[in-house]
TrEMBL record:
CDD domains: Ubl_MoaD
Pfam families found in the cross-reference section: ThiS (PF02597)
Organism of this sequence: Rhodothalassium salexigens DSM 2132
Protein name: Molybdopterin synthase subunit MoaD
InterPro entries cross-referenced by the UniProt entry: Beta-grasp_dom_sf (IPR012675), Mopterin_synth/thiamin_S_b (IPR016155), ThiS/MoaD-like (IPR003749)
Gene3D superfamilies to which the protein is assigned, alphabetical: 3.10.20.30
Length: 84
């Protein structure tokens, strides 16, 4: 699974992207975020602000935490975007 991080998420984690192999229990956005937070350190701090995060799976906004994720997916974490 490819993870992409944008804006303050990237700054706090200190990485723009990474390849991960989550355990089989990671089947949706909610379980992915829980697993990532369990990595501790900056991940726990950033994911402690889940209400301030948006997630996209394969470039489609995943508003529902039950959105499925799989090993071949690209998942992006980013703050809410405002337009003008």
């Amino acid at each position: 699974m490819k993870l992409l991080y944008f804006a303050w998420v990237r700054e706090r984690l200190g990485v723009a992207e990474e390849e991960v192999a989550p355990p089989a229990a990671v089947v949706d956005v909610a379980s992915l975020l829980h697993w990532l937070a369990g990595r501790g350190g900056a991940y726990a701090a950033v994911l402690g602000e889940r209400e301030r995060l948006c997630v996209a799976v394969n470039q489609v906004h995943a508003r529902d935490p039950a959105t499925p994720v799989g090993a071949d997916d690209e998942v992006a974490l980013f703050p809410p975007v405002t337009g003008g």
